[in-house]
Amino acid sequence: ETLDPKTGEYRARGGDKDIKKACKSLAGVEEPRARVKKLVETDGIVGEFAWISIRDSLAYAARRVGEIADSIEAIDDAMRWGFNWELGPFQIWDALGFAETVERMKKDGVDLPESVEKMHAAGAKGFYVDGKVYDLLEGDYIAQKQDPREEPLAKVRKGDPVLKNDSAVAYDLGDGVLGVTFTSKANSLDEHNIGLLHEAVAKAEEDFRGMLLFNQGDNFCVGANLFLVAAAAAQKQFDQISALVKRYQDATQVMKYARVPVVAAPFGMTLGGGLELCFGCDAVQAAFETYSGLVEPGVGLIPGGAGTLNMLWRQLESIPEGVEADTYAYVTQVFKNIAMAKVATSALEAKELGFFRHTDGVSFDRARQLHEAKRRVIGLAEAGYHAPAPRAFKLPGESGIATLGMLVNTLVAGGYATEHDGVIAKKLAVVLCGGASGASHDVTEQEVLDLEREAFVSLCGEPKSQERMQYFLMNNKPLRN
User: Fold this and answer.
1) 340 lies in which domain range?
2) pLDDT in tens for each of the 481 residues of the chain?
């Protein structure tokens, strides 16, 4: 029920069907300008409410020019940067159609400033037109200021794509840098963009001096396409899953050992497979607001793109060559981060959790991230880049597996983890400890990758893991079974 302001009494809610219908119609509209226009044009109470709310905000913003800021750009920037709007008020106005919006406001009796009335009378097409912006105080268009460090990908790239397929594209970014960006839904990983990563590294080694992985949208990468894995698991196509995981592991390792530097520029949600891609890069230039973590246990799995290997190796790389060291403490830290699906809520926290190196860069201004990441590629190349040499380490082996297993049993017995959480965690422990024989010899990277792939495929065959995958796909939240 909802309170009726006219009667002061509660009554049955109305308009739920209209709201659900509107949300469904907007679900597939990803471009912000098209989405807000469609929202305002929606029939019924949803469109009416949206129009009134947006209309009054736009008119208010126009009346404040000259009072709180001298330019509409400053107001748009403030609303986008300070309040996380996708579009500022004057950008929204243009998206709705400048003239049509003014006429509709006037029809509604909205008080518009004289500057906007004059702009409309002069036949202006919008606030932002052909690289110029309208100055409401001067009553004319002026050149839009563009900081060269804030140029978008569309301006930085040179010519047509160097490589392209259904889920990714590679551009020449100039200065000898090849840029790869995903075009899949939510920048998720699939066989197509994984394949293009292989091609891009080969192309970068041949014709460029470095490679940059720079996606667009709200999130860098939300992980692998879970639907593909869940569908294959349901049909018991485990050989297909193993081949896909191997292909993904190889892509990460190919980037890691490329003859040219590879840099990632993560932002927003960088989860699961998205973070594993960053592990395969020589350096990261992360946006400050980067939310990263290996969250695969929530869908019944462990990382499958060399994530267990590379996160552990990053912890162990501080051990000098030839020095014998007890690696159990390192393994335990990585085990906790993955088994508990820890998520860093900023780039700085990601460094503390070991997801990023302390030497990795942080961009506090998203608009400058592409420029700063590209400069990082160039810097590594000009410093005389050499690919890292593979290393091997003695891991805890059977004793470590047993110790971590007792920890898991305690958590399950205490109700802090479910039985299936325990199954996942114990398989993870086997991988991180190098298998039962991990303490008897120096464990190579390929041995860990084989253990990771075996555990991943094994979990795909677990009914409770399949339930977690299916539940997440249907409800967009994890199942604790």
Assistant:
1) 153-390
2) 788 888 888 887 766 777 888 888 888 788 899 999 999 998 888 899 999 999 999 999 999 999 999 999 999 999 998 898 999 999 999 999 999 999 999 999 999 999 999 999 999 999 999 989 999 999 999 998 777 787 877 778 888 999 999 999 999 999 999 999 999 988 999 999 999 999 999 999 999 999 999 999 889 999 999 999 999 999 999 999 999 999 999 999 999 999 999 999 999 999 999 999 999 999 999 999 999 999 999 999 999 999 999 999 999 988 988 888 899 999 999 999 999 999 999 999 999 999 999 999 999 988 899 999 999 999 999 999 999 999 999 999 999 999 999 999 999 999 999 999 999 999 999 999 999 999 999 999 999 999 999 999 999 999 999 999 999 999 989 999 9
Final residue belonging to a domain, choices 145, 171, 201: 145
Give the three-class secondary structure for 232.
Answer: helix
Closest C-alpha to 212, from 171, 167, 155, 158: 171
Alpha-carbon gap, residue 70 to 75, rounded angstroms: 9
Same domain assignment for residues 180 and 215? yes
**Where a domain ends, among 145, 166, 198?**
145
Asked whether residue 256 falls in the same domain as residue 161, the answer is yes
Please check whether residue 23 lies inside any domain of the structure. yes
Task: Tell me which residue has tokens 């014998």.
Answer: 324
Query: Could you give the number of structural domains in the chain?
Result: 2
**CA-CA distance, 324 to 393, in Å (whole number)?**
9
Residue appearing with tokens 């008020």:
89
Q: Residue 250: inside a domain, yes or no? A: yes
Tell me if 337 is assigned to some domain.
yes
Contact call for residues 252 and 301 (beta carbons, < 8 A): no
H or E segment at 396? Answer: none
Beta-strand pair 158-164/168-172:
antiparallel
177 and 272 within one domain:
yes
For residue 43, what are its two tokens? 């029939």
CA gap 453, 284 in Å, rounded: 25
* Residues 293, 226 share a domain: yes
Q: How many residues does the chain have?
A: 481
Residue of 316, 337, 186, 309 lying closest to 252 (CA atoms): 309
